[in-house]
Amino acid sequence: MKNILKIILIGIVAAVTYKYLNEQDIEVTSQLQKAGPLLENISEKVKNLLSETEAYSGSKTELPGDLLEKPESTTVQESKPKPVSPAPTRPANTQCQVKEENKASEDRTSFRATITRSVRKTTGKPESKQRTVEVKPTPYSPNEKYEWIKAASRRYSPNTWHLLMTYDQLPDFIEIINHNESVVSSHKPAKTFDYLRGKTRLDHILYMSINIHELTHAHADYMAMHQYKEQGRFYDMDSVILCFYINQHEEYNTSFPREKLFPSKKLASVIPERYRTFRYDTYIEGNNSTQGDGVFGLMDEFHAYYIDSEFGMDMYPAFVEVCESKEKALIEWIRYTQSGMEAYYEFSFFIFEYLKYMKKHYPANYRELTANSSFKQALKRINNLFVDLVINFLKKIEHEAALLSRADELEVKLDKDELVLTRPYDTRRLAVMDRTRKILHPILQSDRYDDIKEDLRSDY
C-alpha cells in the first residue's frame, strides 16, 4: 500500500514538474527568439575576435554553436534551449582581459533606433507612416560608470564628440509641413548615449563606437528635417533627405526622389559569390534602409562607418590608458578598429556596383543622380577622407611597432596585412586587415568603374 502511495505521489510531482518546465521553457525560448537577430550578430563579432585571437596565439578555439543558429520563425518552440558553452578566454599575457560576452555586434543594425514619421493632413485624423522598422534601443539611464568614456571621447576625439553634442541640442520633437501640405512630425529617434553598455573600460570604448555610429545615422536624418524646419522649407516624405556631417564647419545636404532608386538586393544578380564579404548579407540582401533608400542607404552606412572609424583612430591613447602595456594597447586597438577600416572597401564596392547597375538598367535616373551636385560632393568627400583614414591607420601601426621594437627581446613589424611580434622563444601574428581588403582592393583598383568615375567627375 505504501508503495502504491509512493508511486501516486511521484506521478503527481512528475506531472507538476513537467508542466512547470514546459511553461518555463516556452517563456525562455520566446525570449531567445525575440533576441535572435542580436545573438546572431553578437556571435559574428565573437567569431571575428576569435579568428584574430587564433592568428595571434597560433591556437584554435572552438566557438559555441548555439549563438550562431538563427531562429527560423517567431513561433514559440516548446523544445528546451540547448546549453551554451562558456565563452572562451584569450591567451594569458598576450592581450587585455575582456569577457567575450560583453562584446557588441559588428552588425550595427541590431542597435538601430526606430524613426517614425506621423503624417497628418490639414483636415482629418493623423495616419502613421513608418520610416524604418528596426530594433529600438534599451532606454539609457545616466550612470557614473560611463563618465570615464565620455571624458575620454571628449578629450581624444573632439570631432565625433561635437557630432554627439550637436545632436543632443536638437529638439525632441519636430513638426513640419510636407510638400503636399500635410503635416509631418517626428520624435527624436534616440537619446545621445542610448547605446552605451558594458562593464569594463574596454567595453565602454567599443560601445561608444557603436553609439557614435548609430547617432551618426540619427543625426543625418533628424538634422536634415530640423534644417528644413528652420529654413521654412517644405519637407518631402517621398525623397531621401540626409545631412552628412564632416566636422563643425562642413556638412553636405542631399535630397533625391525615392521612386527613382531601387533596392540594393537587386545587386545580388551581379555580385559573384567570391565578392560577397562580411557585410554583404546585411546591406545588400538584408532588410534595412539600403532597400528603401538605395544608394543613399549605402552612403548613409559608408558615412557612419567613416565617423566611427575616425573615433577608433582617435582613441588609441585611451587604449594606452586602459591596458597594462603599450604592446597590449596596440593589439587591442587594432582588434577593435580594423573592422571599421575594412568597411571602406565594402561600401566603396557596393556603391560602385549600385551605380553601374543603375547606369545599365535605369539610365534616365542615373543621369539625374550623377547631375546631383550635393550627392557627388558628399560621396567624393567621404571617400577621400576614409582613404586617408585607412592610410593613417596603417602608418600609425608602423610607427607604434617601431617604438615597441626598441624593447629588449621584442621585434614588431607590419608585414603586408599582419602585425608580426617576434621574441626569441616565439613569433606571433595578428591580422591588421582581414580577407575583405584582399578580395575587394584589386577590383576597386581595376578599370571596371572608370566610366562611373568619369560620370561623377571625381578624382578617386
TrEMBL record:
It comes from the Bacteria. Residues 56-138 are annotated as: Disordered. Residues 98-110, 124-134 have a biased composition (Basic and acidic residues). This is Uncharacterized protein. It comes from Marinilabilia salmonicolor. The lineage of its organism: Bacteria, Pseudomonadati, Bacteroidota, Bacteroidia, Marinilabiliales.
